[in-house]
Amino acid sequence: VQLQASGGGLVQAGGSLRLSCVASGFTLNRPAIGWFRQVPGKGREAVSCLSTNNDITYYPDSMKGRFTISADAAKSTVYLQMDNLRPEDTAVYFCATDLGQSSSYALCHSRPPIWGQGTLVTVSS
Q: Would you give the DSSP letter of residue 30?
């Protein structure tokens, strides 16, 4: 079981990026999977989670409006579209899953056991 995140980079404030998370070793039609981020010296926070068995998404209030999670099961890939980026969005972004049938809400409020390696997003002002 492996998650491979990519798509990070340097972008100016107001710009957009799309992160990708390719899953291997399991199929994207059952587990919840989510995106989390971490700023050095701070804890990880949930950005968005998706229940791949019913396409229900969850966004913490602070993340609503600028982030969109989606999945392409045929490509075993989960995406995070990030728009109108701000300098405070600068962080390492991780995808994670618990391989279970947690709800998207439950996954975002837990610490999943399986994490990808992270991709760095830097937003310049």
A: S
